[in-house]
Amino acid sequence: MPETKQLKKSDTKKLSSSRTKTLPQEATKKLTQSKTRAKKIKHSYNVKDAENSLLLKLKNGDVVIEMYPDAAPNHVARIKELVRQGFYNGLKFHRVIEGFMAQTGCPYGNGTGGSGQKLKAEFNRIPHKRGTVSMARSMLPDSADSQFFICFADCPWLNGQYTVWGEVTSGMEYVDMIKKGDGANGLVTNPDEIISLSVIADI
Questions:
Q1: How far apart are CA 149 and CA 106, in angstroms?
Q2: Angstrom distance (rounded) from CA 11 to CA 183
Q3: What is the mean pLDDT of the chain?
Q4: What is the tens place of the pLDDT at every residue in 142-166?
Q5: Region 46-56: what's the mean pLDDT?
Q6: DSSP string computed for 129-172
Q7: Nearest to 203 by CA among 24, 16, 40, 48
Q8: How far apart are CA 54 and CA 197, in angstroms?
Q9: Whole-angstrom Cα distance, residue 146 to residue 167?
Q10: What 3-state class would DSSP assign to 195?
């Protein structure tokens, strides 16, 4: 058996110095989150599929949205594309009606704009209920773009007429706290904003 050598105090000092001190700041930032830690963070949101789940940060707390790629594949793909571009960060909940829904996704903050890419409707049999996330549109079925809404309550009269692409699975109490509109058709004065919207797989 090899002989164990007692370390001198001067030797232990050498061991305590971290090699990361010589690394650029950007490189040390990458070291702060290991793959294991990143995996734990993703698992803490308790989602079935991190690639098809979103983390919506609101002023009062975090909201998890699980998406339906099987029911609305094109809408889910486009939403993820916009999310990864940072499109939704800072956008306002411009139309919020008590007991009905909160709508966002307009870059102008007034419901008149979008990303410039219309989507063909993917109406499905998923019901509009409390926590449902669905695509806003005009009178034309294939006019959905970037705007979407989250239902505060069951809205069966919307079923089959709007593309349901997700559901809030955590943090619905924070959705309830979004500032409600007091103007015509739910228009909000000084509306709340999306702090950030991320694909959980990217966190």
A1: 11
A2: 72
A3: 87
A4: 999 999 999 999 999 999 999 999 9
A5: 96
A6: -TTEEEE---SSTT-B-S-EEEESS--GGGTTTS-EEEEEEE-H
A7: 40
A8: 7
A9: 17
A10: coil
Closest CA to 121 of 138, 104, 102, 97: 138
Q: What span, in angstroms and rounded, lies between the C-alpha atoms of 167 and 196?
A: 17
Distance of alpha carbon 172 from alpha carbon 196, whole angstroms: 16
pLDDT bucket at 3, cuts 50 / 70 / 90: very low
**115-117-120-126 Cα dihedral, nearest 10 degrees:** -20
For residue 176, the one-letter residue type is D
Q: Tokens 């702060």 correspond to what residue?
A: 32
Tell whether the torsion through CA atoms of 48, 203, 191 and 175 is positive or negative.
positive
User: What would the DSSP string read from start to end of 36-72?
Assistant: HHHHHHHHHT--S-GGGEEEEEETTEEEEEEE-TTTS
CATH classification code of 49-202? 2.40.100.10
Token duo for residue 156: 């069966």
Three-state DSSP class for 74? helix
Whole-Å CA distances, 102 to 41, 113, 134: 28, 16, 11
